[in-house]
Predict the 3D structure of the following.
Amino acid sequence: MASRHVAPQHHKQKRAIQLDVSALNNWEYEEYTASFCHLVKAGTGIDIGIGTNFEAYNLSVKDIRIFLAGTVPSSYDKVLTIVCPKLELSDSVSFGKFLAAQRLASHAKNGHDISENLVFIQPFTRSSLASGVSEFSWVPTSGLNGAGAAPKMPRKHCVVEIPKVAKRTRFTGLSNTRRETDEVVPSSETEESPCSSVDESDSVAAAAASSKKRARRSLPVVAKFRPSAGSCQACRKRSIPCRTIEGQACEGCREFKTRCSSLRGRNNKE
């Protein structure tokens, strides 16, 4: 009877709960490394600073327990159970596991129910929110001349529809004559033309023409110049102030308070 080969069963190995400095944001790096340096100095008397090879130093589980008890008194046991479940108080903890414990403590301070998944999620802090807002504080405006600036003119494929204005006629009670009114009829009441949209260039030209008409109407009315009886015949024909001999202003220039031009050595009389 042939024996049956049984394949060995491979148990899924649980990943190590630890972090690298590359997984930290700026706030976490400053806070966690400062705490680690403080605990190393308190336990061993060695004064280490920022930029040191932190992996060369370990902390005891007892020191981390005391530190977390003062930071998150209600959650430090759960933090230690997640990070180092099988370690005794006399065992040592690496720098990566200390970072994981610190991140869980930060989540606990924010009121979250800590779990193993939160080790790999950066905590929400005020400083991280401020840095995130500052990255997106610049917004392009219409006055900028660049790729991010808003377009000054509409796209070519945009279609502008000009509302139709029609005039209604009504009969008066006295006669059969009709009188036009300036009432505006919506486009839905008038007959729709087959071409309901116009080209962009036509709409721009129409807008420019209407603005020119409004500008002409808004110009002040200037009184027309009328030469006086004392002006010469040539100046009266041209409707301009009369020019006389130098030093003598004509009657027309005196009346309109205009500086009289002169022709040296000549008389303006024809």
